[in-house]
Write a structure and sequence with these properties.
Layout lengths: L5 H6 L1 E6 L2 H7 L10 E5 L9 E6 L8 H7 L13 E3 L18 E5 L15 E3 L2 E3 L3 H14 L7 E7 L1 H15 L5 E7 L14 H12 L10 H8 L19 H7 L5 E5 L3 H8 L3 H4 L10 H19 L10 E5 L10 H6 L1 E2 L2 E2 H9 L10 E3 L21
Parallel strand pairs: 3-5, 3-8, 8-9, 10-11, 11-14
Antiparallel strand pairs: 1-2, 1-4, 2-5, 6-7, 12-13
C-alpha cells in the first residue's frame, strides 16, 4: 500500500476553474446542459517546471441517443453544476514527485468531461429533447479550455503532455495531434490511459457496440469535430478504393483507437490493460460470471481463461497493427490485470510492475528519452495462467477491483 502522506495529498489538491461566460458565449462552448465547462488546476510546484504542463481529460463513457444524452445532462457527466470545488489527483495527476516521477511538479489540469462524445462532438445548433436544450460541443469545450490555459501561461509552455482515461484516453487518440498542432514549437507528448478500445466483435460475433459508437458520433456532429485527426483527413480525401465491409463511411472508422493511432504523428505512450474491465464487459460481453467474479479472474474455468487469453492475443495484434506501437518515440505499458483507469490510483501507478519496472518508472524513462526505438519502451505483460490461480502477474494485487 502507498503510505499516507499529508503533504503529498495537499500538493495533489486541485481547484475548480470554469471558463468565462464571455468565452463560452463567443465560442459556443457549453456542457450538454448549457452550463460552463471547466477544469481542476494545480500550479507547478517547482520553478524549473513552470513551463511544463500536464492536461488530463476526464473520462465517463458516451451517450448513444437523444434520451440518453438528456439523462446525462442531469448529472456531472453533462453539467458542471454538480462539480465540487476541489479534486485530489492521483497517478498521473499526483503532485507528489515520489509517486508521479515524470510529471509530479508540472502544472496539472484535469478537464471536466461534460459533452457526450470524447471531446469531439460539434453540432452547430442545440437540440430540444423533452423541453430540455442540449449542446453537443465537445470540441469547442476542448478549445475553450485550451484558450483559457493559454491565458494562464500555457501559451509559453516548453513541454506539454496530453493524457486522460477511458473516454478521455480515447479523446487523446482522436484529438492528440490536433492539440499538438496548436503548440508546434513545444515538446509535446501523448499518454492515453485505458482508452484503447479495439474494434472487435462480442462473444456472439456481433459488432453492435461498434455501430452504437459510430451512430452516436453522427448524431452529435463529430464529423465537424475531427479537424486535425490525420486518420479522418486521409480517409476523407484518399479513402481505400473499395467499399468499407462494415457498411459505413471510411472516416467513421477513425473513431476507433486502432485506426486513429495508426495515423498519429505525436509521440505516444499507451497505458492500458489487454484485459481492460470496461472492454470485457461492454465490448466482449461474454463469460460474465468469470469476468464479474472473484478478484483478478479467480473464479474462471480453464475454458473461460482461454477465452480471455484469446481476447488478450487479439488486443495485442490490434494494438501492434502496422508497428505504430514500436515506432521511434512511442512506448506502452500493457498489463494483464482486470482494471479500468487503474493508473488513476497512486498505488497501482507506483507499484504495478511488468518485468520488474513500475508503470511510473516506465513512463518516466519513456518521457525522458528522445528518438529511441519504440521497442525499448514497450512493456507487454504475461498471459493468464491456464489453470487457477489465473493471475499471472502478482503485481495485479495493486489494481483496483
Amino acid at each position: 500500500m502507498v503510505a499516507f502522506n499529508m503533504s503529498s495529498m495537499m500538493a495533489s489538491v486541485m481547484n475548480l476553474m470554469l471558463i468565462s461566460q464571455e468565452r463560452a458565449d463567443e465560442t459556443g462552448a457549453y456542457c450538454l446542459d448549457g452550463s460552463l465547462p471547466g477544469f481542476y488546476y494545480a500550479p507547478a510546484t517547482n520553478p524549473k517546471a513552470n513551463n511544463s504542463w500536464l492536461i488530463y481529460l476526464q473520462g465517463g463513457g458516451y451517450c448513444a441517443s437523444m434520451d440518453d444524452c438528456a439523462g446525462r445532462a442531469q448529472g456531472p457527466a453533462g453539467s458542471s453544476n454538480p462539480w465540487g470545488e476541489t479534486f485530489v489527483g492521483e497517478g498521473p495527476l499526483s503532485g507528489d514527485p515520489a509517486v508521479n516521477l515524470a510529471w509530479g511538479d508540472f502544472h496539472r489540469i484535469r478537464v471536466g468531461y461534460c459533452d457526450g462524445y470524447f471531446y469531439s462532438s460539434n453540432r452547430e445548433d442545440p437540440v430540444m429533447v423533452g423541453g430540455q436544450k442540449l449542446y453537443f460541443r465537445g470540441k469547442r469545450v476542448l478549445n475553450a479550455v485550451l484558450d483559457t490555459l493559454d491565458d494562464m501561461g500555457m501559451i509559453n509552455a516548453k513541454e506539454i503532455v496530453l493524457s486522460g482515461c477511458s473516454a478521455g484516453g480515447m479523446a487523446v487518440y482522436l484529438q492528440g495531434d490536433y492539440v499538438h498542432s496548436r503548440y508546434p514549437n513545444t515538446r509535446f507528448r501523448n499518454a492515453p490511459v485505458s482508452g484503447f478500445f479495439p474494434l472487435h466483435a462480442d462473444y456472439e460475433g456481433s459488432k453492435e457496440e461498434m455501430y452504437n459508437v459510430i451512430n452516436a458520433g453522427q448524431m452529435q456532429g463529430a464529423d465537424n469535430g475531427m479537424d486535425g485527426n490525420n486518420c479522418w483527413q486521409q480517409m476523407t480525401t484518399s479513402p481505400p478504393p473499395f467499399e468499407n465491409p462494415a457498411g459505413v463511411p471510411w472516416p467513421a472508422m477513425c473513431i476507433f483507437s486502432n485506426f486513429s493511432f495508426a495515423f498519429m504523428n505525436t509521440s505516444t505512450f499507451v497505458i492500458n490493460s489487454e484485459l481492460d474491465a470496461y472492454s470485457l464487459e461492454v465490448i466482449w460481453g461474454g463469460d460474465k460470471e468469470c469476468v464479474d467474479g472473484e478478484f483478478q479472474f479467480g473464479s474462471c474455468s480453464p475454458k473461460e481463461i482461454r477465452d480471455l487469453n484469446n481476447w488478450a492475443h487479439d488486443f495485442r495484434g490490434v494494438i501492434r497493427g502496422d508497428n505504430t506501437l514500436f515506432r521511434s518515440g512511442n512506448g506502452a505499458f500493457i498489463g494483464s490485470c482486470k482494471e479500468h483507469c487503474g493508473a488513476e490510483s497512486d498505488e497501482m501507478f507506483s507499484q504495478m510492475k511488468i518485468n520488474g519496472t513500475t508503470m511510473a518508472q516506465a513512463i518516466y524513462n519513456w518521457y525522458h528519452s528522445e528518438g529511441e526505438p519504440g521497442e525499448r519502451h514497450v512493456f507487454l505483460d504475461c498471459y493468464l495462467n491456464p489453470q487457477q490461480p489465473a493471475m499471472c502477474n502478482p503485481a495485479c494485487v495493486h489494481a483496483p477491483n
